[in-house]
Batch of 3 targets.
Target 1
Amino acid sequence: MKSLLTVEDLAVEFRISNSKLRAPDGISFSVMENECVGLVGESGSGKSVTALAIMNLVPAPQGRIIRGKIIFEGLDLLAINKHPRGTKISMVFQNPMNSLNPNIKIGKQLTEVLQEHYNLNYREAMERVIRVMQELGIPDPEKMIDRYPFEYSGGMRQRTMIAMAVLCNPKLLIADEPTTALDVTIQAQIIQLFKKLKEKSRTSILFISHDLSVISQIADRIIVMYAGKICEISPTTDLFRNPLHPYTAGLINSIPGANERGTKLMAIPGNIPDLTNPPEGCRFHPRCSRKLPICSRKEPPVILYEQRSVSCWLYEGVNT
């Protein structure tokens, strides 16, 4: 497969009072054509900021990209004047109620996307909007376009955000926690929706979540982040069968099983570190049960292991 998006050594810095924090901090990964890549990790690991950096939407002046490259279709998005946001790259934001304007009807908000990017007249744009809404399973779109966001259910608002993101047939769709706050039935519907988009339109997807069980249902590969760093990148099946990084293993072990009712849930001890003063060496070592003496002194390198990558001293010197 050909690479559509390549992120190289990306670091984003935020100023908070008299302190600075970096998340993400020197991460590298790729998304191939017609591939769904899951980006998972605890809150505060830098997942959403990574997405905002790709979209060139890092909030200024508090935040800024201090180094790295974001290569999309051979062009560095950080070095060009016109970002392909909304046309070739689109994003489904985390909270649709905050992303949609409560004072404007849904139809007008969606048609504005096509009028802005393609200079379509209102009638042409509305025809396209209704067709996309039908494809995404929004019932009776001719009537729904005349409603306001608060008149939609949570699932319908999320479908509307997806419709807005795919109106221009993007090559890359970034979904930031698109199933958060939805019940499991609606979650399953939204996941199926993304699968159909990938199959029908051959759209590449970067799917962000803190929930590995959700990611496992859609991702071809999974990137595991912790405290601004990437711990592991692996095909989904391999990651669940044999997690390499102790943090990944902890996340998988903490997923409750269907037959474990009444048993104590597994948990990773401790908390994510303060990124204004991150620990020396591996950032996970204060919580790791398998740490070595070197883990607290030196940051682990990225080690290729059986067509996977892991940043952990446990694999230093292992034949790859």
Target 2
Amino acid sequence: MDRLTILIIEDDAHINRVIFNALRQENYECTQAFSGSEGKMHVTLCDYDLIILDLMLPGLSGEAFIRELRTELQSDIPVIVLSAKDQLDNKLQLFTLGADDYVTKPFEIEELLARIHVHVKRKGINKPVNRHQHKNLILEEDTKSVSVKGIEMNLTKQEYNIVEVLVKNKTRVFTKQDLYELAWDDHYIGEDKTITVHISNIRTKLKQYDKESYIDTVWGIGFRLSP
């Protein structure tokens, strides 16, 4: 079975990251968006299994997003709404618009995960084999190994973590802060060369086995997996 793909649309960077990290631990494929318009763009580009949606978003609101998702885009992707609005009338309005579930802020991440698991079971999607491939690179989560053209690479723990983050989020651009916090599981303390040096080392090791480009620099933003 394919990996369950989840789109997180939440403008609060901290909440978005908490959800992203929790879902990543559950072995889900995730994309982050920080506005309704950005979320809509992702839906037009990719086929997601589930959407986690905040209501108070810049630009296109959560309510407007659901309306356009169901009408203009003709999509039946399940939507779990996150909102501080807990009045019954608000919930009924959202269900009428096309929301599938509702979690009231503030919430415990365990509750959100439980709701997600319910929708996973309904869709009949099982957790997949933890094997990911991009071009000639294969990443095995079970053994924490990366091989290129059948040859296993000698990566440090942080180098492996960086490759894993990029390979599991093929379309996303990661800032240095994103990569540092995900690969080191620690708070980013400011601008330094740590990520740049590690990316350079990974590229050098990849070139030993394959001339293909695997990591692109997005100037002024960060890094992403080469298409």
Target 3
Amino acid sequence: MTFTSIVLEINLITTINVLILLYILRYYYKYFTRKSRIPSPFPLPIIGNLHQIGLNPAQYAKDNHKKYGDMFEVWVGSKRTVILCHPSLLDQVYVTNSQTKFFPRGAVNHVKLNGLHHGNELEKLLCNQ
């Protein structure tokens, strides 16, 4: 090996280490500055909470329900997933509203498919009868 090849290897290793460090810093910056923080177990970069979930996700959900309450979040890789454990929370998620802490949703308009009515038009038909 020559001196230049050793220097190139050291530069490559240093560059990879710096990139990994930057990814970890970005991951935790996004984690600590996220909107609508919900209680959750602390995730690791790249794998999130997968190391904690293991082979029994149902037991993991039950344990976190006891610890964090009816709503908690789990990180699968770098994706955030909110777990809801009470039916009343589902109503809040699916309400048509753009001013919500959940993702914005619009109203479902009338859709007629194979003679079936869906959405707001169905509600009008049922209320008029």
